[in-house]
Protein: Adenosine deaminase
Amino acid sequence: MAEQNAGDQVVFNKPKVELHVHLDGAIRLETIMEVAKRRGMQLPETVEGLRTLCTMSRPGNLTEFLTKFKEYMPVIAGDREAIKRIAFEFVETKAREGVLYVEVRYSPHLLANSKVDPIPWDQKGGDVTPDDVVQLVAQGLSEGEKAFNIKARSILCCMRHKPEWSMEVLELCKKYQNRGVVAIDLAGDESLNCVSQPESCSENYEAQPGHRQAFEEAVRSGVHRTVHAGEVGPPAVVKEAVDVLKAERIGHGYHTIEDPGLYSHLLEKNMHFEVCPISSKYTGACDQDFTKHPLIRFKMDKANYSLNTDDPLIFNSTLNTDYSIVQTHMKFTEEDFKRLNINAANSSFLPEKEKRDLVNQLHKAYGADG
Structure:
């Protein structure tokens, strides 16, 4: 597809920071095939056949996007070797894309297969717990850091349809704070948390108690917080993320601009928006015409945002694809790219000293005008 082919051209060949990418949406097709063969699981026999199964060939909606995970996640979930491998390979991929620092997120429960929390595609249960998953991912990321000389940290996701998991996710964040876990996230279908019909969400949106409890404890425990909000949901979801869940960053946040008061307030707060251009088109979050993307408004208003891939496996894209798209359709310049990466570094969930070091590395790489 045109925008994906454009991604082959590197338009910003300088160090980058990525803050919003899902580990389970960034797996190599070849790895999925090799693990499936080892585990005796049936998949298409060619990489291209698997690509057709796992990727979105045209813009759709969030529901269609989420179903793609079911095509390949049974291969990886519950397999210790595979979980560690995808984390290691993820770091290698990001190093190749020129990423200096990355925060990768995932749901520990959806990569597990324990009998305590059986996932939909594994009704038999197994011995890999969410805690095991966090340990395995941490090992893979750490080995990748050493091998490829970049820094990688992780964010653990609560899932909107599973509020009963959220306190365990929070406890895992606390347990592994010194082993690379830097934040908690809330992901999934935004409409699931409306207390009435989705069309009434703007007036009646409220987080389910399990999520709210976990995020309140995160605040008390000093665990950083980001929330998927305003991707396909209305501005009220963003407002709830900020006011109730105390989000320090917003995942996507495109529909925030539909509420001028809220948008103005978040600009004043210097709220960071984790923007994913290619993703927003294929999930139906934004107009398919990139020249009408909310990012253009963010850019014009000098908002605080980053560029991210979200789920590059499913969109058949790379970070370069997203950079190329915004250069071609939104007139981004090299100075714009420098600014957004420095903003991303400043909005990262690293400890303050490491954050200052990262920002300084970028300034040095970008030169005096960076």
Summary: The first helix runs from residue 2 to 6. The CA atoms of residues 190 and 233 lie 6 Å apart.
